[in-house]
Amino acid sequence: MYIEEITLTHYRNYDQLSVSFDKKINVIIGENAQGKTNLMEAIYVLAFTKSHRTPRDKELIQWDAEYGKIEGRVFKRNQSFPLEVIFSNKGKKAKFNHIEQKRLSEYIGAMNVVMFAPEDLNLVKGSPSERRKFFDMEIGQTQPIYIYHLGQYQRILKERNALLKELQRQPQADPTMLRVYTDQLIDHASIILERRFLFLQKLRNWAQPIHEGISRGYEQLNIDYDASVDVSEDMDSEKIKIVLEEYFNKIESKEIERGTTLVGPHRDDLIFYVNDKNVQTFGSQGQQRTTALSLKLAEIELIYEEVGEYPILLLDDVLSELDDYRQSHLLNTIQGKVQTFVTTTSVDGIAHDTISQAEIFTIHNGYLVEER
Amino acid sequence: MYYPEPISKLVDSFTKLPGIGPKTAVRLAFFVLNMKEDDVLDFAKNLVNAKRELTHCSVCGHITDTDPCRICDDTERDSSLICVVQDPKDVIAMEKMKDFQGKYHVLHGAISPMDGIGPEDINVASLIERLKDEEVEELILATNPNVEGEATAMYISRLVKPSGIRISRIAHGLPVGGDLEYADEVTLSKALEGRRDL
Ligand SMILES: Nc1ncnc2c1ncn2[C@@H]1O[C@H](COP(=O)(O)OP(=O)(O)O)[C@@H](O)[C@H]1O
Ligand SMILES: [Mg+2]
Ligand SMILES: [Zn+2]
């Protein structure tokens, strides 16, 4: 799939922009603070209705404007269709083929995007919540129902935690309501875990050979799911449910004492191993970066496997961060199959081959000029 | 801004209405000044009467001008079947489709610890009393299909289950995360047909 064109209205530092893209490689050159990331973000938001760098939608609207709008045309499965996301002080609206989609889970997945930005190099080193976010976004965009379960889970979790705080103050109170929330939480948690396990198995299958390739055969990657409860990857949701039920039953009084939910998918993490050593604690910076890159490349293949088309790849300021070998490995993997956006402050440090095939844009203060 | 006191008081009253901020309140207050005196008197009288003459039915909690309400009083209706809803507006929505022949119980809200609403803050206790006294055979839980409504339904179901009364939950046809009052009549009928046992 690829994005044919995009139109931004009052989006970040773009007052008005309409631009058509190349099906293969688009290179966007500009000094700092000119709007390169803003443009990448706009494509990302068109896919997810959410920014990759802020949870506050308001920031996306141009300062002093009433609303901000992103429109795009995407070509997928042999046809092209429009997508639209509008932000205003009344909230946001997302339209697929001119029709407003009331539920996030019905919109996401229309267009698949993989973003690779310098922050992602920290995926391995960063906090567990970053790894969970990586997981959740990637599962969500190929299985929209996952987003629904995640949303319900978070909602129930908030109610449950509020109730646990109350019970902490009055431990003698009737626990019936707590058990209701426990049941509801488990319903969604077991599905979330099942989907994460299935995803992990596929991710691992793709990431391992890729990692081996990038490391010229020297490194073996492995990925483990670090669950807060004693569940394992071979369990289905029914089995997971039984384990969770037992576990929550056992820790009920402890949870009341602490006033919060102690276990569940919101507490889980991923552990990466290179040659059987935990990369987060023992890996070199190079190994951590290779791991992050392997995961992103694996994601591209995984989306192809699930959706039947390659996603759109956004490389924001990241290509020049990679050494020549990793850069060429990345570009070889996508080899004209994947519509790719590369942003950079200068063309130095980017392989000549890439530049010669690409459509080049320069960007200055929210104005985009097509060079070739 | 300094207004003569009667206007200030009127502005203050308008801001008590939902969705009305200070600016709109001022606009409405000045609008009232230009209305015909008869219309203003009617308006004031209607406000007071709506409040005075309407109460909550002591049986089901629905808004009514007679107690018990006309629905509770209607001997033609099947009193072995009670549909539990969150809001009087839900009763009105269900009555419009004229399919349901049982009676109602209005909770006036849903349980949400986050908003400080516990079981004791909604109309559950009187439902349990009602189940003891009346010969109820089936309870349909038609709380909203979002987390709060779902949790409230499960709570009630846990309380009632030991009594052996059949409990069902409106199952599908309703938008998840949506409010019952937005559901159109066709989806509501479907939802009623498709109720499932809890
Ligand atoms: N809501 C907004 N309205 C107008 N300008 C904005 C808004 N948000 C960010 N900007 C401006 O956008 C610029 C940053 O653009 P960005 O795309 O992050 O730069 P870069 O080209 O370095 O990636 C800054 O000048 C910032 O002031
Ligand atoms: Mg940038
Ligand atoms: Zn009544």
Automatic annotation (TrEMBL), chain A:
Task: Please name the PROSITE patterns in this protein's record.
Answer: RECF_1 (PS00617), RECF_2 (PS00618)
Q: Which GO terms describe its molecular function?
A: ATP binding; single-stranded DNA binding
Binding-site residues for ATP, renumbered to this chain: G30, E31, N32, A33, Q34, G35, K36, T37
Listed under GO biological process in this entry are: DNA replication; DNA synthesis involved in DNA repair; double-strand break repair; SOS response
Write out the annotated subcellular location. Answer: Cytoplasm
Of which family is this protein a member?
Belongs to the RecF family.
Name of the protein described by the UniProt record: DNA replication and repair protein RecF
Q: Which organism is it from?
A: Piscibacillus halophilus
| Name of encoding gene | recF
From TrEMBL, chain B:
Native organism is Piscibacillus halophilus
- UniProt keyword terms in alphabetical order: DNA damage, DNA recombination, DNA repair, Metal-binding, Zinc, Zinc-finger
Q: Which GO terms describe its molecular function?
A: DNA binding; zinc ion binding
The primary gene name is recR
Which CDD domains does the UniProt record give? TOPRIM_recR
* NCBIfam families (UniProt xref): recR
The organism's superkingdom is given as Bacteria
Which family is this sequence assigned to?
Belongs to the RecR family.
Listed name of the protein: Recombination protein RecR
